[in-house]
Amino acid sequence: MDVLSDVMTVLRTGRPFAARFARAAPWSDHCFGRLNGFGVQLMVRGTAVAVTEDGEVFKLGPGDALVVPRSSAHLVADAPDTPPGPRCRPGHSPDGAVIRFDDPDATHVMLCVAYELAPNRTHPLIGGLPDFVHIPSDPGARPELASTIAMLDTELTAELRGGDTLVPALLDAVLMYLLRALLGPGTAECGFGGWAAALADHSIAAALEAVHADPARQWTVASLGEVAGLSRSAFSRRFTELVGQPPLAYLTSWRLTLAARLLADTDAPLATVARQVGYASEFAFAAAFKRDFGTPPGQFRKQTPACDPATEPFRREPVLL
Fold first, then answer.
1. In angstroms, how far apart are the furthest CA atoms of the chain?
2. What is the pTM of this model?
3. What are the structural domains of the chain?
């Protein structure tokens, strides 16, 4: 699995949430943050404004996306002068739900998507993004994103058989296309620093891909530098500057992140988990895990519910506004 897919697969937990709102102006919503949430709002028809609690304003047109990596609270309305509507209750909608609000005279259509992220680990990719990222529509440059949003809108509208499978798949596709748009194919096109910029750097990205492809391998700074095509010192310096951690510190952090997911989702013995993430002994693994997570791996497993999204169907419920 490639590094970007790997990160999002391991960090996501539970089922994604989707909502389709078709409304006639004027309208206004308070969007509260979802605990450990990663939110996306997609404008399908009409124009709107999103206003953060700090007063920053984003103008959203058809095809635009507003990515909210930490699900920060904000207001969305059809126009800047529309009075604020009633506050939505945080956590009102269940996980794995599709909620819809249809107005036959709708002037605006917006899709809202949210993912729940693992509560005990924030990856540098997420932590390095700003609270709000506006991605303007550009069908010429990103036709696949425009097409997938259109398919998602159709699927949320139709409520046909097979939707429990298609909707999550389309949500994942939209998320990946948006992340591609955020990161850009090259360093010059990536508008962010940190891990996002590291992915856009060919040398450091090669090292990250190697770590994610084989986290259990006994990597050294020198061997990762060879993968990156850089000397040991040059690689270590550039990796630390872009990723925000030295190479082996990132390796350890990612191994333990993988271990946490294995502990939550499988009943594999601790010794097996330890080997899968690169530890020669269960004792060394347990010590490292407790140092990082603050609890022994066995206790962590008992306290963390398992997550198997594939077996949890979406629920379709009406939304009351």
1. 64
2. 0.78
3. 3-187 (2.60.120.280), 201-303 (1.10.10.60)
